[in-house]
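In practice, a research group might receive sequence data for several interacting partners and want a quick structural hypothesis before committing to experiments. The following worked case mirrors that situation: the sequences arrive first, and a predicted assembly follows.
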Amino acid sequence: MMPLLAVNSIGEYLVSLDFSESIAFTIAASIHVGLVLTFFGVAPLIFIWLERKVAGRIQDRLGPTRVGGRFGWLQTLADGVKLIQKEDLCPEEADKMLFRVSPYLVFVASFGAFIALPFGNGFVAQNLEVGLFFILALMSLEVLGVVFAGYSSGSKWALFGGMREAAQVVSYEIPMAICALIPVITAGTLNLVEIGHLQAGLFTNWLVLNSPFTFFAFFVYFTVATASVKRAPFDLAEAESELVAGFHTEYSGIRWSYFFMAEYASMFAVSGIATFLFLGGWHDGLGLIDLLDKKLELTANGWIGQYIVNVIGLAIFITKGTGLVFFQMWVRWTLPRLRIDQVMMTCLKYLLPISCALFLGATVWPLAIYSVLPKHRTVFSLFGNPTPIGDRLYRKPAVAKVVEKTVKLEPIAETTSVPAAELHGKVQPKAH
Amino acid sequence: MTGHQLLFSIFALTTCGGALAVVLSQNVVRMAFWLIISLGASAGLFFLLNADFVGTAQLLVYVGGTLVLLVFGVMLTASGPFSDFKTRPGETFMAGIVALSLLLMMVFTVCSVDWKKVVAATNQGVPISTAQSVATGFNDSEEGNTARPLGMALLGIRVDHGIDSGANANRIGYLLPFEIASMHLLVVLIGAAYLARAKRRVQEI
Amino acid sequence: MDLNCSLFVGAVLFVAGVVCMATKRNGIGVLMGVELVLNAANLNFVAFANYTRLGLDGQVFSLFVIVLAAAEAAVALAIALSFYNNHLTIDVDKANQLQG
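A structural hypothesis for the assembly, expressed as tokens:
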């Protein structure tokens, strides 16, 4: 009934407490939005502090040291308070309405990506079947806000920044989507939680080690993702040395900080996708998490333990994601910025053909293993389970039931009357 | 009013309001902005109508792709900053009358059909959610998860009609239209690049 | 929520698109009208797929419409750019060279 609201566990819990359905789902949705918004707000605070520390260390400085004790913990918070107090300027030349709205467009697009991004086994605001597709779609909307910000500022620097951003992001979206599809055709699903479940056990099950193609796809994906969230060395949209500050030249105060919150949150979003698609999601790589989870499933009050295991999984996922974000920062402060023509050439002449070749290779690889190398199949099966596309779908135990049930399908009038509770009964366990 | 109805009305109002703002605004860039609002909200309507995949494709292809292209085009062809093309008052008046009569005609048509009877007459398949939860083993219980059934429909396996029903006897599916569409896209890509490239030699003469 | 509401939204989108096509003199504005009309059709396809028992055909159709609309926008934009290169304007009323 409510794909947008479907926050099944809290919602169903509240329904079982005799709340009316709409109130229960509204409360559940607000809780989910609150949790995601908290992460969305807190993560950039930490990442900005981390970025300044990393930049400082790489440039042989100390970075922030004063605010909030020895390590400058509260530096970003102090900066945030300063930004909120600043005057909300709007230039004379600007198209006022668009100028005011475009930071929110960027913010909403980046925040929307977190709706479908899982933070662990079942920790997801909305477990969409098309989760990956949805995240990529929403993150592609960020560019619109940037282009509008650039255009409506009424400044040539901002306009240049906006145009560069449009050209760059539209081009880089293509190899990014293709590279994200490579693990998808290996896994046979677009649902990130399912992709995470497939990588249980030892780290050899991680999709990055599944085949040579997924291995290279990881690096191509990460490069392209860095470019598509406009981080250095691809930050042509705000190239300080050429364009003052690019598309946000005219912005100040809280609206300016929206752009930055969105940028740091998208850094984490693309890193989170990379973690789920290639690096095993919430799994630790030694199989401990699954072992605990399976053991606890059999015991009487195991759900408490399972919940704790899930929280550990969440911590592992966030650690992996933060590690990738740290890598992006490292790259930013190490490599010089490219020129705009070099950026476009890198994408269209190199990354796009490479990702297409990898995509074709990843399609052929499992078939090749099955047909050409039947004897060595056991060797390869050490590295994940390379199955031909769609094979996994039909080998599911559910399929035996499928055929049985379809034969006995009732007339429509009766199948429609399946109560909603029964349909929702089989939802994956969600842990909050 | 259930939550579903509330969300539906919010998205429907945003869609209609955005579309009206596209018509009424004179500045092209603002038109593009309102078009984004309208099409984005209609993606929300698709989600509410149990079409997750179509809604996401709308966001990715339409809003994230086509509209960026449009905004890009607007900026490349704007002769001055924030250039306006005014519509004459007479035109606006005429257009308003035509629009109102067209809208009334369509609303009247929709109201005059007894949809319950029509729906009852089209009883061919099983509801999508039930059908696909039966046919595919994955994550089956939420409605709107049509990605897998759509992919199978492209290959000619119609889970929404029941796997063993007559609809699957001749497995053609939508593969041919799909291939034609992809060839079409390739041709369009080449053609658009050819049309839009700068023809400097012509301008020199 | 029944079928009628979706059809009403579709009707409003369609009318807005038609008016946009008819009254805008900016070539790209006309293109935006076309997008609105196609989106109205899409909405109706999806609504019929949801409220009737016809199955997934409506959703498949709307996918094709989305893809072909992207192609249409690319070609129309290329034409608009080419027109702008030759006439230094994008006012469709200025495209009257064939009026004799």
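Before designing any experiment, note the following. Residues 85-395 of chain A form one domain. Chain A touches chain B through 69 residues (CB under 8 Å).
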